[in-house]
Amino acid sequence: MEQEHGAHGPSVDELREKYRQEQQKRLRPEGMAQWGELSEELDRDPFVEPGFTRDPVVEETTVVIVGGGFAGMLTAIHLAKHGITDVRIVEKAGDFGGTWYWNRYPGCMCDVESYVYLPLLEETGFMPTEHYASAPEIFEYSKLLARTFDLYPRALFQTDVTGADWDAEARRWQVTTSRGDRLSAKFFVLAGGILHKAKLPGIPGIDAFEGKAFHTSRWDYGYTGGSPTEPMDQLADKRVAIIGTGATAVQVVPQVARSAKELYVFQRTPGAVGVRNQQPTDVEWFQGQQPGWQHERIVNFTQAVTGAQPEVDMVGDGWTEVMWVDTQKGAASAEEAAELERIDFEVMETIRARIDEVVEDPETAERLKPYWGKHCKRVCFHDDYLPAFNRPNVHLVDTEGRGVEAITRDGLVFDGVEYPVDLLIYASGFEVTTDLYHRLGFDPKGRDGVALSQRWAEGAHTLHGVLASGFPNMLLISLVQGGFGTNFSHLLSESAKHVARIVEACIDQGIVVIEPEEAAEEEWLALLLGVGMGNARYFQTCTPSFYNSEQQAIDSRAVRNLTYTGSLLEYVGYLERWRDEPEFPGVTVQRADAGEHG
Predict the structure, then answer these.
(1) Which of 88, 206, 462, 496 sits CB 3.0–4.6 Å from 75 for a disulfide?
(2) Contact (CB, 8 A) for 380 and 272
(3) What is the pTM of this model?
(4) What distance in Å separates the CA atoms of residue 2 and residue 171, rounded to the nearest whole number?
């Protein structure tokens, strides 16, 4: 699926220099510190009625799971499949869904095909209505999953974990919450925090704005009118600004453009936007699938987007076309490196050429062109984003990589020009590579009262990104030292399955304490570094993003906080082989009424 290079396009040398120039514009010395947190007011849940109260829960349970998104739900579901139903799920939101609870902005949908993204379709019997499911449909499906697997009686909603301490004598985790709950659990699963904590750009004067402002994950339909499926009729006389041009903005911009009097899109780095080609589900095709079809399709998609090039591309969409060749991998020779670079340039040239075909104004089209490698940021696919810039009420404010200079009482300032607006929308995404305890909102304390923030002060210490020394019986579902993939739900499903299998094995074998050995953690880190070194050349040329922690200077923390940058299927293979060993290698276990064993 290699892209043909235009006969009159720029040369490889010209593109390489253009990429370098665009990267340099965007490098910022503060790195990740350029982002801030939502204030208490901006972080308020707009989807629940205020004043919720309930009696505190005081109980002993087998497992406490933090997070009610797909990771937490799937963990509980897989535990139940192993007969473990003595579980509590603690969730900040008012319902299940995780990201899909919070993201209710207009136009929101998943950019991965619904038949591979929505987990357990065969078990629920649910048929997605479209190739790419909308956020309302995914949220409803989350609730269907919870009903199907009887998760609601086990959930504590609108509840934050405030503390979690390992009790060595009781060999339990003692968990406290904002509702006064005291939960004592044998196993503690952290399944929140991958796309959970919304972030804001650290723009001077951000608190000075006197108009309406909100983050896309806290959309206020009371102000805009409409709903996720209805036009925002109250924006007809409003001037609106959107900060951001990533995956969220690509979906929001067309919807706001149809409703607002004026829309200003403030761009720091152009997004790469390919064709989505949304289609309704072929009912006959879907109903004709044979048992086991979804797992086969999920694996096939992951193979295609990691360059494994399966014999048959079952999904055949923009993702598999763009990612068919893994151009970020380490090359065996200079010739192979040059060939991979050429293919990457050609794929992105195809995306850039589409902008010229769709956007009518040549200057706007040029400013919308992304000059970065296809693995540097998440490529987007949408049919309405680029055409939105042909509307007379839509204005692109290209900040040339610098971002908005300041926010005033009345609007935004760039290049000395103030843009007065009534509504300011932050399409700035979520924290992904920040410290785990920061994203979770509490700091677990393990052996001898040592907090996770202390133990990981110089970076993470884990086995497979799942078990952590110093924190017995704590299991993680996280990107930190774990896997990564285009299809997030595939990663979450496999991680949840792994966590459930560990808990089941411990119960079956009478293991009351399980903890990885530091030597095994260092071996895993060495493997991560070995795989990551092959991609280092590629990412050195990338524009800053959450993929590379904003190109922040590499220190010991960054080195240790790697993800597994190879194929997700390779990462899953490591988990499966480890589980298949007669004894858990690289861990210390303590059995009931017995000593410790390696």
Answers:
(1) 496
(2) yes
(3) 0.91
(4) 56
